[in-house]
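note to self: dont lose this again. the chain is below, predicted strucutre after it. 77 aa total, dont forget to put it in the shared folder this time
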Amino acid sequence: MPIFEYICEKCENHFEALVYGDEKATCPKCKSTKLAPQLSVFAVAAKSAPSSKPAAGPCGSCGDPRGPGACSMGDFN
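---
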């Protein structure tokens, strides 16, 4: 069950879609099937000491280096 990231070419909505088999993704906002696939950001886990806290990777939706959910946090500048 791969998760793909898309931008709708009709309404420019950015979203992720879980795609099964030969299914085609549709925009959840306008239901268009004209979608531009995006390069997904993925996380890799490395073995570390038991007491160390895992480092947060970039947000899976927007790639913000502040981590998951950062795209909804706004700018701090």
